[in-house]
Amino acid sequence: MKASAKQLLDEAGQLRVVNAIQAAERGCTAEIRVHLEDVCQGDALKRASVVFAQLNMHKTTERNGVLIYVAVQSHKMAVFADAGIHDKAGTLFWQQEVDIIKQYFALGDYAGGLSKAIDHAGQVLARYYPATGSANPDELTNDVSFGS
Ligand code: CA
Predict the structure, then answer these.
(1) If you measure from the C-alpha of residue 2 to the centroid of ligand 1, how many angstroms do you get, rounded to a whole number?
(2) Given the DSSP bridges, would you call strands 145-146 and 76-81 parallel, antiparallel or unpaired?
(3) Domains of the chain with CATH codes
(4) C-beta separation of 144 from 12 below 8 A
(5) How high does pLDDT run on average in the chain?
(6) In the predicted model, is pLDDT for residue 148 greater than 70?
(7) β-strands 65-71, 76-81: how paired?
(8) Which of 12, 21, 44, 104 is most buried by its number of CB atoms within 10 A?
(9) Phi, psi at 125, each rounded to 5°
(10) How far is the CA of 38 from the centre of ligand 1 (A)?
């Protein structure tokens, strides 16, 4: 039996991811979320866009939500970003995100891979959406969400 997403990212792992999101979001106004599920039939990016909508991630002021989506048993992942971001950051950024996650996942380090990808996203997003001034509300929860 294959390990489920919740087994691969236990509570300590989730906490690490949440801390990484908090740190990344301090430097930019973008909103990052992580969604894990076990199986993805079909195209991961398409599925990520559906999850993005289900999580109401389009409801940010600057349309700058980013979803890191992983289907652990299917070994599929995608990074889906809202309209405001996608063109700005460029395809290299998205490929780097996926590469980082894959490297760590190959070693079984799920929390490490996600945290590293979030750090990287935070650095890039800070260029396009720097957190200037004091208004930088946490528009979307930082908790990891799980599907099935
Ligand atoms: Ca947030």
Answers:
(1) 30
(2) unpaired
(3) 6-128 (3.10.310.50)
(4) no
(5) 93
(6) no
(7) antiparallel
(8) 21
(9) -65, -30
(10) 23
**Averaged over 21-40, what is the pLDDT?**
97
- Is pLDDT at 87 greater than 80 in this prediction? no
Q: pTM of the full predicted structure?
A: 0.94
- Direct distance between the N- and C-terminal alpha carbons of the chain, in angstroms, rounded to an integer: 15
Distance 109 CA to ligand 1 centre (A): 23
User: CB-based contacts of 44: which residues, under 8 Å, 6+ apart?
Assistant: 69, 71, 74, 76, 77, 78
pLDDT of residue 85: 84
Q: Name the pLDDT band for 26 (thresholds 50, 70, 90).
A: very high
- Residues lying with their CB under 5 A of ligand 1, a single-atom ion: 31, 138, 140, 142
Residue 129 dihedral angles phi and psi, to the nearest 5°? -130, 65
Distance 67 CA to ligand 1 centre (A): 11
* Tens-place pLDDT, residues 100-136: 999 999 999 999 999 999 999 999 999 999 998 778 9
Rg (the chain; Cα; Å): 14
Cα separation of 102 and 93, whole Å?
A: 14
